[in-house]
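chain below, 188 aa
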Amino acid sequence: MKPHSFLLASASPRRLQLLAQIGLVPERSEPAHIDETPHKQELPEAYAKRMAQQKAEKIAARFADVVVLAADTVVYLGRRILPKAEDEATARACLEKLSGRRHRVMTAVAVAKGKHVKVKSVVTAVRFNRLSKQEIDVYIASKEWDGKAGGYAIQGSAAAFIPWINGSYSNVVGLPLAETKVMLDSII
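prediction:
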């Protein structure tokens, strides 16, 4: 197997771009299509790790002897997981909750080969400025929130809302690169 030969269990263009930034290009990208509903009272870390592991295991079961990389990113306030914004109302509700507050972004990364799976989570603290109704309206009109955990994309115009982060920037985008590279190096 050539160095860093792996399959990405994701359809996320952001994860592909992040991996390419550090010279890691999967042989193919294969979304897992699993049920991503949180269990009742499931905590953010348990949820993110369960999602990443299930995605990795589902794809690894289909591709024997192939290294599979999967990830799941959650945005949360306290113990409350914010949804992935699939419509304007959800995106607006997320932005209103995040306005003027600190929150956390966690990405769980899973690397699998056969039945062997390693899972690690990375947390970044993020602070939002207080947002005006007009700022929220303009951001909603941008459609950058579509499909994003917590209803925003730090790599887009929402960067203007964020004066401070503590931790990995790439984690907030969707994949903690330093930790992901170490995990791939250890299994490949």
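The CA atoms of residues 65 and 161 lie 44 Å apart. The mean pLDDT is 94.
thats it, cya
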